[in-house]
Amino acid sequence: MQALLLLLCAVSSVYPVPVDLELLPKTNTCGYDSCPTRQPGVLNVHIVPHTHDDVGWLKTVDQYYYGSKNSIQKAGVQYILDSVIKELWEDPKRRFIYVETAFFWKWWVRQTPATQSKVHTLVNQGRLQMVGGAWSMNDEAASHYQSTIDQFTWGLKKLNQTFGHCGRPRVGWQIDPFGHSREFASLLSMMGYDGLFLGRIDYQDKRNRLLHRNMEMVWRGDDALGKSSDIFTGVLHNTYSPPPGFCFDVLCADEPIIDDPDSPMYNVESKVDQFLSVCRNISEKYISNNILITMGDDFNYQDAAMWFKNLDKLIEYANLKAAKDNMNITLFYSTPNCYLKAIKDANPTLPTKKDDFFPYASDSTAYWTGYFTSRPTTKYFEREGNNYLQMVKQLQVLANLEKHNEFVLNELKSAMGVMQHHDAITGTEKQHVTHDYERLLNQAIDDALIIAKQAFNKLTQKDDTKPPLFDFQRCHLNESSCHVSENSDKFVVTIYNPLGWSVREPIRIPVGNGQYEVYDSDGKQIKTQLVPIPNKVKQIPTRVSKATQEIVFIIDLKPLSYKSIYIKKINRTKRNTNNYDFYSNINNNFWGHIKEPYINKIEDVQTDKETIDTIKAIPFAPVHSEDISLIEDRETNLDILKDGKNDAEVMELEKFLKDSRRKGKGKDNVRIVDSYPNFNEDEMRMLADEPRTVEKFDDEAVIGNQFYNLDINTASGLINKVTLRDHTKLNFTINMYYYSGSCGDNQGTDRRSSGAYIFRPLANNPVKLATQRTELINGDLVKEFRVSLSPSGFTNTKVYDGLNFIETEWIVGPIPIDDEVGKEYVIKYETNILNNGAFYTDSNGRQILARKLNFRPQWNVTLAEPIPGNYYPVTNEIYIENKDLRVTVLPDRSEGGTSLIEGEVELMLHRRLLCDDAFGVGEALNETAKGLGLVVRGKHRVLISKDDITIKKNVLGLHLGPQLLFSDAKNIKYDEWLKLNNEYSFVTKELPNGVHLLTLEPFDSQLLIRLENYLDKSGSIEVDLKDIFKDITITGLKETMLAANIFVDEYDKWYWNNERKVNENRVTSQDLKVKLNAKQIRTFIANFEDKRDVKKFKKPTGMPDFDRGDNDD
């Protein structure tokens, strides 16, 4: 090989060497025009230098950017970009790609004009290319399509405004997410990406694809959208790392290329032979004469000179060797864009894929399905963040607020973009990074709420010059905690509906003891029900609250509207109109309050000085709703209370109960109770330490509403069946279980631990939680069946008056680990539906995919782990069905789900594990709060229906539920409040069934509007935007691709396998009628005028220049 150095000049004149000047791009050419010239008839090896920079993982975002805390991981993104720009500038042959706009933008705004000018030149010449381009490389399992679209829009807008069309990414680069969703492929296609590259797919799938040379395919993103959703998809050979032995980074230990012939370490010949062998092996797995080899890894290129110096040598000597030996192979610097262009020019016949890449397994016992549920409170907080973001984006437009507010709006966009990262929403980061993610989002929400405060003060007073009347605070309603409602005798709740149709929603406000009146926006009193807050909620360690009960009422909200509700505490004697039965059935538990077993209704009589509790017991829930018969309580065994010290008090209690029964023998079996037993506080506390089994009532009861009747057994804590309003009966039970998590040293597949990524139970059969205590609340507005479970579980099944869902509130934690075994809690909805192993889950909250137990559509799967191997991500819904019935469960956050047994839907709720799974995070997933295991509270909504519109509206209604803001009203009288503009809908009419206003936000001086047809099957639906908004007139539209970074008339879709172009519905600037086909999302930049002040708020009629900045040097 040493002789090669002497022959270099002579050989280069005889054999083609594809790194000479003819391969360099023309000045200011970018995109596909900047690609190097390929040679026909030879193997073209595209060398792609890159770095993978996690937007938080083992370190926080700032720690990664600034390179601090290197004891955790040696990584500093600012040094990567500094170093790469320097090396690219020195040699025009070199190429580099960058992905994460969050990091790039943080670096960009800190650069000098001279450096920025260099970067512009590199981008304009295609030497530095942006791929992906979203704010972060998002997860594809737990992320929701709305948040994915938002974070792409935000990242791509930054690139577009900075670099123009040369900064536009052409390919998606999803090299590290742990599985890939079909909906994400559809979204990328709608955004105008030409291709998508993946790093991780299931090990069996990859083995099969390598065997059959199917590593590249056409992925159909959505059946309803057809070939318009097709996108080229390639699976990278080595995930995203360099071939073994060729990592030339400061973090690596591989040998550099030493080309000094006099050195005893000279290794050019061996290195080149090794690399060319790798290239030949890879080429055998792909169908064209082009292969892509990634040269980079996590946080590589902090010293880019090491990489480029060795890559320069590798390319030079490999080409020299190939030319000398007639090997028909050539190496050159390239990018994913240029590789994709080469594949397109080759025009191969590619297989079509119509499913997804879930679940992902890296070996037979490493199913990456645990992260579908990991860190459930973070997943819930991310969803809250999205709801606040949609609200403030809409209000910024609808209230016509000042542009400077967009600074805090953009802060929230950035925080939400970070949360989509594949180590953020997934819960696969270190604990201190979780805290930092939540800090960023919490601060961004607080800052962005200034928009809501300004908007509601302006809208309610119809004047933005007046001082604000209200403060509009958010509350921790997931903990039944709210400082305003608990500490104010008068307060206002402002409720915002972001959806384009009317909604009816239950509202629950935590308050202290006492009675309250609730007034609608027009001053009419709203029917309410006071419900005690469950003890399990009060015991949440992080909860800071004095609230003991919740005001429950049902609210009707107009489309895209707000409504103000006035609530005041009653300081006079008032008969309680909140009729509900309170029933407690306790098994093996202890006293909480001695009153609970026999007090069914509390009437508060308040004076100026004190509150006096009186008791009135009313009938319990009927056994059958048809005959409305009443359950009579059994004789009470009070012997368990007698300990020789308090027998007299127990006898008094026994006499009290007997007297109440005698009084209840009259009409309607209503038991009238006049006073409590005469116990003082010390005696009450003494009794509270005794076993809680005081009185046991009949075991069977029914709770229901206009849609469902649930037969329940209060002794077992089980629902037995549900009867629909057409009298169809379905066996229906809710149970909670836990899997014990495996804990090993990960030194073999049989010693794999369950961890943040991996779900690996010790046994296939989970442990069922035992019923400890049941409570029944039977009121006019809500009926609840509360079941305390051991260990550490709680369910509360609710049916609300007039609402078409069954709601299951669940609480898990602190998960016990005294036995030194981690546990993973699941809930099962058990029915007698025969679903034949089939079930259905959503893809990122949008389309539905069919799943089959122990099955993969494109290969014959072998499952060594049948439980985690059948788990799938559930973002918004999972269901089973037969020909007559469908049972759909909607979670309030992303969870893992499956149907392992006929008729069951299983969802994982919470995980607490004691071992790391050895996939990099280096910590066990053992979340704590206040020194105890983390307690998580959530809810599911269950629908038994096959009506698609009903289901989809419930899906969107839970995902984008009404937002509540609270204000103390001590400085405003009720009569003054009544004069305010307490309700307003911003639209002239509801959107048609099937249409969702996905996006409404300011877009520079214009508006960004997205309309979505959420139905899988429908004809086209038309929406006329001309007069849809009350205060805004849309004067012109121009349609863009989904991410709003390119106009549709500037985009030519790439079709594969000789497919022909699809005719698309287009709308002109003058024609404001928009047609939406099934599953279609259409995006528009709109000119508008505000009717409230046309002269002041008239917007320019020209469309934005999407090439801003592309001529900057």
From TrEMBL:
Q: Which CDD domains match?
A: GH38N_AMII_LAM_like
Provide an example Pfam family for this protein: Glyco_hydro_38C
Q: Name one GO molecular function term.
A: alpha-mannosidase activity
- Signal peptide: which range, if any? 1-16
Reactions listed under catalytic activity: Hydrolysis of terminal, non-reducing alpha-D-mannose residues in alpha-D-mannosides
User: What name has this protein been given in UniProt?
Assistant: Alpha-mannosidase
Q: Which PANTHER family does this one have?
A: ALPHA-MANNOSIDASE (PTHR11607), LYSOSOMAL ALPHA-MANNOSIDASE (PTHR11607:SF3)
EC numbers, comma separated = 3.2.1.-
